[in-house]
Amino acid sequence: MSFKIIGTGSALPEKVVTNFDLAEFLDTSDEWIRTRTGIIERRVINNESMLDLAEKAALGAINSANLKPSDIDMIIFSTLQGDYVTPSMSCLLQKRLNAPCQHVFDINIGCSGFIFALDLADSYVSLKKAKNVLIVCCEILSRFVNWQDRSTCVLFGDGAGAVVVSEGESLIDIKFTISGNAEHLGIHPVAGNSPFSESDQSRKWLYMNGQEIYKFAVESITRDIKEALERNSLSPDDIAYFILHQANLRIINSAKQKLNQPDEKFPHNLERYGNTSSATIPILLDEVNRKGLIKNGDKVVLDAFGSGLTTAVCILNWIS
Amino acid sequence: MTLEKVTAILAEYKEMDASEITAESTFEELGLDSLDVVEIVMKIEDEFNITLEMNSEINTVGKLADFIDTLL
Predict the structure, then answer these.
(1) Is A214 within 8 Å of B37 when comparing Cβ atoms?
(2) Residue after which a domain boundary falls, among A126, A145, A169
(3) If both were cysteines, with which of A40, A122, A165, A317 could A133 make a disulfide (CB 3.0 to 4.6 Å apart)?
(4) Whether residue A164 sits in one domain with residue A36
(5) What is the ipTM of this complex?
(6) Please, which pLDDT band fits residue A1 given cuts at 50, 70 and 90?
(7) Residue A250 and residue B34: Cβ atoms within 8 Å?
(8) Which of A150, A169, A188 is the C-terminal boundary of a domain?
(9) Domain containing A281: what range?
């Protein structure tokens, strides 16, 4: 016995920031951003909290599962950092929803967080330690990017995606790779003022070596997906949708070409939201699910890559 | 030989005639941005079975071919 996804939800901040908006204070252009990333606009929070966004996405998922918050007995919250360093977002969301949880925790795995959360949910559901697991991935990248660095701030956005996971037989395969490396992608911690610290405590931002990460992404997507399909005697032709982490349209196009599959199997929304780290896959999954695109029995591949460095791939047999 | 192979890879990627590419052609002249260069590097790695670490001094087709030769 494994799990199935019984509900999806998402929430985006109201505030839209277009490439043209960015070009007003950065030395960049809509054409430059669009041709290199595919991104046209992104959402950024102004007066909402992370908890507001997370609650909205969570309620969307709970409603679409035809459940009530009182049916949720576990919350896994994926984020790089919540509204507070402590308490955890999972505790705060439990209170907002008034959900009778036995287990709650936050995970910080970066962009692959959603698939790691699915794996955790699978364990708890399979061991019957939880019945209805709420997974929320919510990221506020606008807090971490340097808004004066045109090479990074244009890439990211804020958003939340959620699913409810329950007992079922959806999981075909799930696999991760982990390779600790802070050289090419990372975010420094917030400044402290310890008089005893000998390290530089000034505020630093998200940094990324775009070429290295692009290469890592394209190579890992094709390798992980091909290996996962082969392990299960499947071919790319058997897959209805490839829901890839939304970082860059050119990464998606490159993977599509290497897997030799048509455009319509690779839904994307990064042109509207940019890269929202662990939230991209559940937000996209919610959009695809609400449009009714995924049919009962469809095989769906989820694939993510990101800071860690980690990669994650999951094959689901969709049960609606 | 290496130059010819690199030229062929570039011509296929850019969908242009190999005769339009010379050793002196810069990536910029060929309309290749930084992410195109990564795609080319990956194709070269597959073709020559090597691992390439790019640096910004390698900016022409000829320099790239010479660099590959040092790794073979």
Answers:
(1) no
(2) A169
(3) A165
(4) yes
(5) 0.84
(6) low
(7) no
(8) A169
(9) 173-317
